[in-house]
């Protein structure tokens, strides 16, 4: 990118609307972080005070939003090269990089301090580490350096259940580690299914995603291998007694669905049908994770209510 285009990206934004700042937060990713953090909070041995719990979830939401804003600040140069991200506030010229950076830093500081004061400093430290990991380790380093970016970087998206548990219990446990592992292993087959369809976007931006570096066939094999690993990992929270039988059934059926979808992606390698199959697997992976955490939340809330 030329110096002129970089400079124009900095200076062209004016009169940003509130919706532009909301877009910086990456609301869908933020909502997933809050939802999984809430699930982690509910697996704590004792219910958290509702007021402290609500403030903690707000802080986690703000922290996730800060990560999104700082990610968009740093990635604005490549975002403008990809059709999927060209309409974001910075590449579209509605916000400057400086505005996004200031916004993200203020939110990050607010989130960490609020969680530390409202809940405890272990949870706040984990939230700070989550923001650092996503922005510095993943966005600034891994994303542009290695096709393993989404594998290693996926730890950032897997940490919210541990943050939620720590906010409620002031410690960590095997249950929060299992939820971390579930999201961590889920991330590669989820994201690589999308990457198979968006290969051209990543190639234009120079981002070394798996299909561009290893090739599509190797990526399909990795999706299948990770899905085979994910299926039993999804069942472990039930196996170790942290969830009820409904979760066990959902995890078993969902795991089978992930493997079946991965097999279909592996077998269909060319043409429009291959792209549709990959997108279908991407969509199902979202449903899989949402269902497991939704069932966990319902089960835990029911347990608390019956025990009240």
TrEMBL record:
<keyword id="KW-0472">Membrane</keyword>
<dbReference type="GO" id="GO:0008495">
    <property type="term" value="F:protoheme IX farnesyltransferase activity"/>
</dbReference>
<feature type="transmembrane region" description="Helical">
    <location>
        <begin position="149"/>
        <end position="168"/>
    </location>
</feature>
<comment type="similarity">
    <text>Belongs to the UbiA prenyltransferase family. Protoheme IX farnesyltransferase subfamily.</text>
</comment>
<keyword id="KW-0350">Heme biosynthesis</keyword>
<feature type="transmembrane region" description="Helical">
    <location>
        <begin position="54"/>
        <end position="74"/>
    </location>
</feature>
<dbReference type="InterPro" id="IPR030470">
    <property type="entry name" value="UbiA_prenylTrfase_CS"/>
</dbReference>
<keyword id="KW-1003">Cell membrane</keyword>
<feature type="transmembrane region" description="Helical">
    <location>
        <begin position="95"/>
        <end position="115"/>
    </location>
</feature>
<keyword id="KW-0812">Transmembrane</keyword>
<feature type="transmembrane region" description="Helical">
    <location>
        <begin position="246"/>
        <end position="266"/>
    </location>
</feature>
<dbReference type="InterPro" id="IPR000537">
    <property type="entry name" value="UbiA_prenyltransferase"/>
</dbReference>
<comment type="pathway">
    <text>Porphyrin-containing compound metabolism; heme O biosynthesis; heme O from protoheme: step 1/1.</text>
</comment>
<dbReference type="InterPro" id="IPR044878">
    <property type="entry name" value="UbiA_sf"/>
</dbReference>
<feature type="transmembrane region" description="Helical">
    <location>
        <begin position="286"/>
        <end position="306"/>
    </location>
</feature>
<keyword id="KW-0808">Transferase</keyword>
<feature type="transmembrane region" description="Helical">
    <location>
        <begin position="121"/>
        <end position="142"/>
    </location>
</feature>
<dbReference type="InterPro" id="IPR006369">
    <property type="entry name" value="Protohaem_IX_farnesylTrfase"/>
</dbReference>
<keyword id="KW-1133">Transmembrane helix</keyword>
<protein>
    <recommendedName>
        <fullName>Protoheme IX farnesyltransferase</fullName>
        <ecNumber>2.5.1.141</ecNumber>
    </recommendedName>
</protein>
<comment type="function">
    <text>Converts heme B (protoheme IX) to heme O by substitution of the vinyl group on carbon 2 of heme B porphyrin ring with a hydroxyethyl farnesyl side group.</text>
</comment>
<feature type="transmembrane region" description="Helical">
    <location>
        <begin position="174"/>
        <end position="197"/>
    </location>
</feature>
<feature type="transmembrane region" description="Helical">
    <location>
        <begin position="223"/>
        <end position="240"/>
    </location>
</feature>
<dbReference type="Pfam" id="PF01040">
    <property type="entry name" value="UbiA"/>
</dbReference>
């Amino acid at each position: 990118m030329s110096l002129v285009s970089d400079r124009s990206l900095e200076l062209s934004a004016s009169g940003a609307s509130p919706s532009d700042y909301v877009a910086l937060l990456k609301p869908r990713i933020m909502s997933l972080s809050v939802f999984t953090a809430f699930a982690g909070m509910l697996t704590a041995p004792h219910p958290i005070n509702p007021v402290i719990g609500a403030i903690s979830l707000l802080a986690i939401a703000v922290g996730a939003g800060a990560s999104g804003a700082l990610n968009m600040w740093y990635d604005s140069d490549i975002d403008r090269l990809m059709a999927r991200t060209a309409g974001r506030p910075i590449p579209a010229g509605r916000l400057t990089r400086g505005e996004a950076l200031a916004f993200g830093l203020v939110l990050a500081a607010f989130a960490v301090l609020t969680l530390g004061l409202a809940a405890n400093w272990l949870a706040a430290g984990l939230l700070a580490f989550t923001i650092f990991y996503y922005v510095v380790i993943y966005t600034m380093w891994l994303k542009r350096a290695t096709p393993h970016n989404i594998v290693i970087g996926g730890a950032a998206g897997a940490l919210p259940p541990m943050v939620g548990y720590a906010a409620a219990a002031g410690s960590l446990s095997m249950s929060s580690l299992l939820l971390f592992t579930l999201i961590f292993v889920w991330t590669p087959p989820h994201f690589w299914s999308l990457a198979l369809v968006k290969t051209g976007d990543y190639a234009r931006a120079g981002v070394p995603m798996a299909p561009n570096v290893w090739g599509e066939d190797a990526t399909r094999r990795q999706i299948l291998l990770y899905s085979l690993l994910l299926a039993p990992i999804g069942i472990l929270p039930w196996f170790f007694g942290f969830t009820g039988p409904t979760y066990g059934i959902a995890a078993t059926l969902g795991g089978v669905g992930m493997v079946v979808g991965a097999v279909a992606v592996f077998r269909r390698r060319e043409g429009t049908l291959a792209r549709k199959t990959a997108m279908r697997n991407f969509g199902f992976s979202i449903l899989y994770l949402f269902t497991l955490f939704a069932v966990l939340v319902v089960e835990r809330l029911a347990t608390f209510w019956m025990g009240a």
